[in-house]
Each structure stands twice: as structure tokens, then as C-alpha cells.
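Researcher: I'm comparing several assemblies side by side, and this is the next one on my list. It has 618 residues spread over two chains. Same procedure as the others: predict the full complex and return the structure.
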Amino acid sequence: MILRKLILCVFPVFLTFYGCDPFNSEFGSVEKARYYVSDEITDTEYHQVLRVMTWNVKFGGGRLDFFFDCHGDRVLMTSTEVKSNLDGIVSAVNRIDPDVLLLQEIDVLSKRSAYIDQVKYILQRTALNYGVYASQWKSDFVPSDGIGRVDSGNAILSKYQLSHGERIALPFISSQDSITQYFYLKRNILRVLVTLPDRIINVFNIHTSAYSDDGTKKDQLDIFLSHLLEIDTQGEIFIAGGDFNTIPPGSDNLSDFPDSVCTNEDFIADDYSGETDWLDGFYNQFIPAVSLSDYQEDNSSYFTHTTDKDGFWNRKLDYLWTNSPGGFKDTVTHQNEISGADIKTMDLSDHAPISTVMELNP
Amino acid sequence: MKLLSITILSILALPSISRAQTTWNSDTALVLEKGTLETGLFEYSHFGIGKGMEIGTHPLMFFVSPQVWIKKQWKKSKRLALSTKHGINIPTGLMKILSREGTGGIYPADSEIPIIFSHFHEGTISLKLPLKTLLSLTMEFSNSLQFGKSSFPTIDLPLIYTRTSHFYGKQVSFRAGMDIQGQLGKNFLWLIDFNLFYMPGYSNQKTMEHKGALRYSFCHMKYFFTAGYIYIHGEYPFGNQSHIIPFADFGMRFDL
């Protein structure tokens, strides 16, 4: 009798508590970020100067040609391939030696990258001590293209302690059906406070939608801008950056880039002709690492992206901003070994990193 | 000692298990009587062919992943039953369908799927316990033979990872299972089972599954609803993970 009652009571509980999110793909509007700490903490000398770097590292895929680029058909990598590519990224990071590093498309538990926790991998091999991570694409299983399990997102690594890390959800692509949306990338803003010896600053990292033609990317950028304006209004200092997936005002070329070979509409992302003023708010309100005048004078020196490993960078998608009155100096777009730090970045990702120096006033 | 005494007393008190048609017989040593067909929307269908034997397959999957098994009851008494089950499966067609670009691409499009000849063999002993309870113990061995180029990744999902594990590594896997079931009143059956999987050749080689389910039978036990949960704690290539998965099915039993 007791067994019978037990079964009849417990049964509905099991049935009801599971099932809303069977593949663990969903997020709340604001969630805590995942924290990382290096096994070995490296001492840091602080001189009121911060070297900041942003890089979309393409989940350690290097220049393998993946199906979504339409240059190849690769889906999964071997552990050896991932580690080899990550070692190149680690080497570049160590040469630039940033105090704060913004990473996009970093995998922590994905089948495509042999389940290597790339945040941990980089943290353990650089002078960076602390990290926060927010998933952008997470699912126990993506039943498409053989992708399988994925957990990929944005991270902020720092030599200084981090706190109040949070993942702020951004709107989904509204034109997608609900099943596609469930398994698709869920864009977000990663925000954290960096505790420097004499102050605390906000750091924001974003990677907006690449493939959307319904205004979602614009909405995401506007939300990001509103967060930065709020921090600015409160009199706090921020560094904000990432892969914005759009080009600056005054770009000479707006469409038909030479590396665009996709015919599948889901992966076409080479027409920015309707986006030329989408970053105006950022340029008008804040200080960019690469000034608009410098960029408009010579677009190509600041390009950060190409999907073609045999070509060269052909558009600028990656940015760093601040509201600190001192702004940035010594900004380098690491396009190749000549442009700075002797790094062959073309082999390491489909994005080139940007590094800069931020002077903090006493 | 107390446990041993209870076990011996239970065995001595075993009533007949000849009227076992109201049981779940999928993971027991019981077989369907000749001419009886049991089938469900998702479950395997099985059919009693007489002489203590039944055959089974999955009607929905048969055309893309042909599978057939035969179960033979070797011993049946008032106290226990003993059977073995032997099956073959050729999943190559299904795997090729699932190796594709876009939605439904479970395997990458560049996978190389060989001809896979999978076979399994299991032995089960069932003991009738007091309170209309049946205990079954099972041991299973699975192996696959492969012909042609082979390059396809594991499916790192609960239930599937263990059941396809013999396609990889040393191409063998083992299962030890315990199944307890009993009646609740006239129309309800309950089932609790535990399965341990061992996949040699993997670094992630052990998985435990536990199932709890209720079955409601009606119309002279010809139709039944089944609902329950499966709890899985497994070692996967990405680490250890636990899942609870609900399931439900509708089935029927005919005397043809």
C-alpha cells in the first residue's frame, strides 16, 4: 500500500519537472556568468595603464574550412587540431600580453572542438588570471549538420579579479521558427566588473547576429548602446568591445565581398548597405580604439575579417570602445606579422585581433 | 543472512508464473503465447510463434534500420523461467540518412558509414516473488562487424550513446540488467529496472540506467497506456552527466 502511494505520488512529479527545456538550450533574461580562475595566479604590476584586446577566435578552428563558411565541409575537429590552433592563439595572446582580453566564439564544451574547455586552456597558458564566460550557443545536442553537443560563447579574461559577471540576453532572430530558434545561437552581452588596485571598471563583450535580415542585429546593437549609455550616465568607466558583425560608417565597400561564396541564404552575410549608420551612436558618444577618421582615410588597414584563408582581411567587424576621457592609444589591428607583434593572425582565426592601450587618469 | 533468508523463503513461496500474460515481457524470460502479437506506437513489436519462442522487430524502423530478434524460452516452471534472445540489426541505411547537411544531420555530411552488421545475445532468468511480483535478471553482449571505410562520430546523448557504443572502439558492449515488476490492482502494472552498461575500449565506458513506469491496461487487457521515466547517469566523451527522461506509449495485444 505504501509502495503504491509512493509510486502514484512520485510519478507525476517526474513527468512535470522535466520537458520544458529538454536539451538545456535556454537562458533567462539575466543570468550569472560562469567564473574561471587560473591554477597559477601571476602577479601583475599596475601603472594605471591597461592593455586591452578583443578577438573572435572561431572556436579554435584556425583556418579549417567549415561548412558554414561555404569554403569546405568540415564540422568536427580532432583534439590535436584544436590544441594546435589554440597554441597559436595562446602564443599571440602572450606576445600582446593584454591585461583584459575579450573573446568571442570560444568553446567550452563542444563536440566540434573535441570538448576542450578553451577558456581554461588559454587561462592556464597566459598571464591572465581570471575569467568569466557566457554561453551564446548551448545545447546538449544540435540535430543539424552533425554538430551535436555545443557550448560556445563569449569570455572576458583579466589579470585582475572579476566580479558581478552577468549574461544579459539579447533578442532572438524573429523570422526563425520556434524549433530553429530553440537550437540556434542566443546572442548576449557579457558584463563584468574588473577590480583594479585603485578603481573598478566595467567591461562589456558582445557578438551580435551575423545572419539576420529582420532588424534583429540593429535591435541588439541598440540594446548594447543603451547599456553603455546607462553606465556612462552613472559616471562609471567602461571598456566595451567584440564582434559587432557590421561595418563602420564611411566604408568604401558595402557588399559583394570577394570571400562570399555561400549560396545558402542562412549563411549569407555580406551585404551591409542598409547598416551604414548603425554604429553612429557608438562613434558619436564614445571613444573608439580606431577613430572613424583614421578608418575612413584608409579602410583596409583596419579590416578584421575574411572567411577566405587564401585571401586577406576585407571588412572591419570588430571594435573596442571606452568612455574613459583618456581614451585609447597605440591601437593595433593585428592583420599580419608586419602590423604588430610579429603574429601571423591569418592562420589562427577568421578574425584579426585588435589590441590597444587605455590610460586611466590618476 | 536476513536477506538470504528472505530470498530463499520468497523463492519457496513462488506461485505459478504460467499466467504471466499480464506482465511486461520485454525484459523478462517470459514469451508470448503462440499467435499473440504485442505492439506499441514506439515500442518493438513481438509475436509468439509457439514452442516457447517469440520474434520481434520495430515496424517503424524496419525499413531503414532492419532489426529482428528471436527469443527462446528454455525453461519454465512454477518458480522460474529462463530464456535467451538473439538479434541482428543493420543500421547502415539509417545512419546514411542521418549523415547529412542541415536539419536532421545527426552525423556530419562528410561521415563515412560502413556496412554495419550488429548482433546481440542476452540471457534472462525470471523469478516469481510474493505479492504478484516478478524479478528478472539479464546479461547481454553486443558486437558489430563492419565492412568498408568507417569514419563517423559518437552520438553523445543518453540512451543512444550506450546502445551504439559497440559501433566504436573495440566494437563490443555488455549490459547487466535487473527488472522488477508487479501488479497494482486489476488494471495497473508497475515496473522498475536497472541496467549497467560497460563499453570496453572507451575512456567513458560505464553507464547506469534506471526506469520506473506504470502501465494501465483496459478492454480485457488488450490495450494499454504506459508512462514513466528513465534516469541515466553516464560517462560521455564530455564528462559525466545525469538525465531524467519521461516517456509514454500506447500499445495493444492481439490474439491472431
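Model: For your comparison table: The first helix of chain A runs from residue 2 to 17.
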